[in-house]
Amino acid sequence: MDFFSNIPTHMDYKGQGRSEKLSRMIITLFGVVGLVWGYYIQQFSATVYVLGAGFLLASILTIPPWPMYRRKPLNWQKPRPSPREDGAETQSPKSKKKK
Amino acid sequence: MHSVFGRGNAMAAYTLSVLAGLTFCCFLSTVFLDYRTPATINTRQVVVKSIPDYSASREKNDLGYVTFDLKTDLTHLFNWNVKQLFLYVTAEYQTPSNEFNQVVLWDKIILRGENAVIDLKNIHAKYYFWDDGNGLRGHKNVTLTLSWNIIPNAGLLPNVGAIGSHSFSFPPEYTTSRV
Known about the structure:
The structure holds two protein chains of two kinds. Chain A has a domain at about 10-70. Chain A contains four helices and no strands. Chain A has helices at about 1-5, 15-40, 45-60, 85-99. Chain B has one helix and eight strands, in the order H-E-E-E-E-E-E-E-E. In chain B, a hairpin with a 7-residue loop joins strand 1 (about 40-50) and strand 2 (about 60-75). Chain A: Component of the signal peptidase complex (SPC) which catalyzes the cleavage of N-terminal signal sequences from nascent proteins as they are translocated into the lumen of the endoplasmic reticulum. Dispensable for SPC enzymatic activity. Chain A: It comes from Frankliniella occidentalis (Western flower thrips). Chain A: Its main location: endoplasmic reticulum.
């Protein structure tokens, strides 16, 4: 089970942005090419099929969380050793009350 | 876009938006085209009868009986935004009781890819040429016109009239024989 739970399934923030940008570029490009091709052969269904091909390609490239979208992980700070939970939490409200 | 479902949903929505834009471009590319073209119509047999029109009343009305020739070439009207043409032949005339009468006599559907060269001889009307009274006998100026309704993928459904029509007159006497 550890093997399966260790498969990474996330994208980092930059990766999410890149995947969305890439998908929009692919679909737009296929749409424009399909429009030109469909106008050239005078068959609008060809345009729709080319757009559908672009949708499939973009789905394969940008929907699964490929490793290329995981290259810029966030640098989380190390967790600070918390002294005591009650002391850290109740300090600020107490100071407000005194003022 | 942190999940597979979120990304799939966004992509499907964007694809459909692009498809709507492409369809609009297709509409724009054909909306200003001129779909008129010449056609020739000639009548062969023209008679008029006076018989009861039971679908309307029991009174006797004029029933025209017309056969005609039709010749035109509509091949160049088809493009990527025309799925089919609906052709129809109308008879138009004026009577004392009505300023404008219009009767559809015949129609035909031509799908894209079918033969659009029309050369028909002596065709019978598909629909009855009833007048709503006695206006047909001896009428001097009845005009036959071919028109078509364009059925597109996206956009308007214009009715276009052919260039050219044919005017004829009905005989001054009713026919009693069978036709």
